[in-house]
Amino acid sequence: MAFEIPDNLHPDCGPVAWMLGTWRGNGHGDYPTIDGFQFGQELIFTHDGRPFFHYFARSWIVDDNGEVVRNAALETGFLRCKPGEEPGEAKVELVLAHNTGFAEIWYGQAAGGKLEIVTDAVARTETAKEYAGGKRLYGNVEGDLLYAFDMTAMGQALQPHLWARLQRA
C-alpha cells in the first residue's frame, strides 16, 4: 500500500512519518519467566500537525491456528520529536502508559526508516509485576513495520522478549 506524507505533518516528525497509520500483524514472545507465546497486534500512529504522534497498541494471544485465545497488552502514549543533529534525523521521546500498571519514559533517535529507543524511567503501581526497563527497535523493512522489544524484568538481565512483523492496514 502506498504511503503519502500528510500535508500538515510537523517537520520535526519527518524521520518517523513512515510510521503513521494503522499496522496489523503477528508476533512471538517469550522470556525466562514466561512460556513462549504467539500474538496478534494492532499499532496506530496518528497526528494533528503538532510535533508528536499519538500512539495506541493492543494485542491478543493466539493459538497455533491463529485463533484468539484472550486479550493481552494495551499501551498508549505520545511519540514526541525534535530535530536531530543531522538532516533527516530526529531525537525522540516516548511517554507510555500500560494497562498492566506501568508508565514509562523512553529516549532515542530516528533516521532512515529506523526508530531506536531505551527507557529512562519506569513507574509502576503496587499491583504491577516487577519491570525495570527495556529497549525497542522499530524498522521499515520492505514496507512492513518490524519491531523488537528487549526487557529487563523479574530479576532478569536485558534480553529479547517480543518481536513482530506488521503490515499497513
TrEMBL record:
GO terms for molecular function: heme binding; metal ion binding; peroxynitrite isomerase activity. Heme b binds at residues 33, 129, 161. The keyword Heme applies. Residues 13-168 form the THAP4-like heme-binding domain. InterPro entries: Calycin, Nb(III)_bact/plant, Nitrobindin, THAP4-like_heme-bd. A motif (GXWXGXG) lies at residues 21-27. Its EC number is 5.99.-.-. Binds 1 heme b group per subunit, that coordinates a highly solvent-exposed Fe(III) atom. It comes from the Bacteria. Pathway: Nitrogen metabolism. It is an enzyme of class 5 (isomerase). Keywords: Heme, Iron, Isomerase, Metal-binding. It catalyses: peroxynitrite = nitrate. Its cofactor is heme b. Forms a 10-stranded antiparallel beta-barrel structure able to accommodate a hydrophobic ligand in its interior. In fact, this fold hosts the heme group, which is located in a wide surface cleft. Belongs to the nitrobindin family. Heme-binding protein able to scavenge peroxynitrite and to protect free L-tyrosine against peroxynitrite-mediated nitration, by acting as a peroxynitrite isomerase that converts peroxynitrite to nitrate. Therefore, this protein likely plays a role in peroxynitrite sensing and in the detoxification of reactive nitrogen and oxygen species (RNS and ROS, respectively). Is able to bind nitric oxide (NO) in vitro, but may act as a sensor of peroxynitrite levels in vivo. This is Peroxynitrite isomerase. It comes from Nocardioides terrae.
